[in-house]
Amino acid sequence: MESISLLVLPFIVLFIILYGFKKRVNIYDEFLEGAKEGAITTFKILPNLFAMVFAVNILVRSGFINDVFDFLSNYLNKFNLTSDIIPMCFLRSISGNSTLVLMIEIFNKYGPDSIMGLLASTIQGSSDTTFYVIALYFGSIGITKSRYALPAGLFADFCGIVASFILVSIFFGS
Question: What is the pLDDT of residues 106-130, one digit of tens each?
Fold first, then answer.
C-alpha cells in the first residue's frame, strides 16, 4: 500500500501537466499565479489566525473552562470519565490544534485505549472547528454576513459531541 501511495502523487502531477498541454495552457504561469494568490490569501488570514490562537491560549491557560464546568465532574464520574474532557468539548469548535494538544495530554495521562482516550478521539473526529472555519475562510474571501453558518455549525458540533459520549458509552463503557 505504501508503494501505491508513493506513485499516486507523481501520476496526479503528470496528469495535470499533460492535461495542461492538451488544453494549451501555460502551466508554469498558471502555477505562479496560483502561488501568488495563495501568498496573498495567507497574508489576509494571518490577523484572524493570530487572534484565534491568542484567544484559545487565554482560555486554555487560565483554567476558565475547567472552573466554569466543574459542576459536571460528579456526573462524569458516574461514567468513569473525568472533567479533563470538558475543555476539549468546548474548544473543539474554536481550534483543532488546541484540542489535538488536549487529546494528547489525555492520551499521556489515561492512555489512548482508555475510555477517556477513546472519547477524546471520537470527539476529535466527530466535530469540526466551526469558529476557525468561519473566521478564517469567510474572512479570507470577505464574507461578512455568515447568517446561519455559525448556528448550524455549532449545532452540528454539539450533536457530534453528544453522539460521541453516547456511542463511546454504548460500545466501550463499563
Answer: 999 999 999 999 999 999 999 988 8
Contacts of residue 56, defined as CB under 8 A and 6 or more positions apart, other chains included, come to 91, 94, 95, 98
**Cβ 38 vs Cβ 133: under 8 Å:** no
Q: Residues 132, 156: contact at Cβ < 8 Å? A: no
| Burial zone of 168 (CB within 10 Å; 0-12 exposed, 13-18 middle, 19+ buried) | buried
Alpha carbon 144 to its chain's center: 22
The pTM of the whole model exceeds 0.70? no
Q: Which amino acid is at 159?
A: C
Question: Which parts of 73-169 are beta strand (E)?
Answer: none
Q: Which residues contact 164 (CB under 8 A, 6 or more apart)?
A: 119, 122, 123, 126, 127
Buried b (16+ CB within 10 A) or exposed e, 68-99: eeeeeeeebeeeebebbbbbbbbbbbbbbebb
